[in-house]
Amino acid sequence: MSTTHLLYLHGFRSSPQSVKAQAMARHVEAHHPDLTWWCPQLPASPAQAMALLLAGVADWPRDRMAVMGSSLGGFYAAWLSAHLDCPAVLINPAVHPARDLARHIGAHPVWQDPAQHIVFGPEHVQELAVLERQPRPARPRTLACIAQGDEVLDWREMLARHQAGQVRLIEGSDHALSDFDVHLPQILEFLQLA
To answer: Of 52, 67, 141, 153, most Cβ neighbours within 10 A?
Structure first.
């Protein structure tokens, strides 16, 4: 059954204006105009982000929805996939965000618009730690696109965490997956949007 509802989750300090989010939005508009597409601006608070997302997809059909996420958004996408039993594409997904983001407490400009800022506090690290403790499914419905050239996250950690699902291990590339278009056909096939 093909996907009719797709949620895209951006990463830390990112936004719906990210290159990958915009590329997916253009593809959906051109090839799947009837698909329900949602790419919200996520709050800095992981607990608020999850509340927003769970409320936003509450009426979506579980058997026809999918999630995509990059970096911290990939962590969120894996969490949602496990809890909602829906497929998810994880692009260089964060594995230990509480550990990794603990050193980023403070105000940060948004990558796509430096005039905008997010404020990330110690309480947000604790919220991530709570999400990290949730149990993971034995057979995840995920496709993890993992770049060995990721300069932000350790690809070995990503592979170890997500090897129970499908994995596309990419030689080179980078954290942003700048060659996203090269990997789009496999992503679309996994999402049943090819």
So the answer is: 67
Q: What is the pLDDT of residues 11-69, one digit of tens each?
A: 999 999 999 999 999 999 999 999 999 999 999 999 999 999 999 999 999 999 999 99
Query: What's the predicted TM-score (pTM) here?
Result: 0.96
Residue 163 domain boundaries: 5-190
Pairing of strands 106-110, 113-120: antiparallel
Number of structural domains in the chain: 1
Residue 185, domain CATH: 3.40.50.1820
Nearest one of 115, 153, 112, 117 to 18, comparing CA atoms: 112
- The CA-atom distances, in angstroms, between 26 and each of 83, 87, 109, 121 are 28, 21, 25, 34
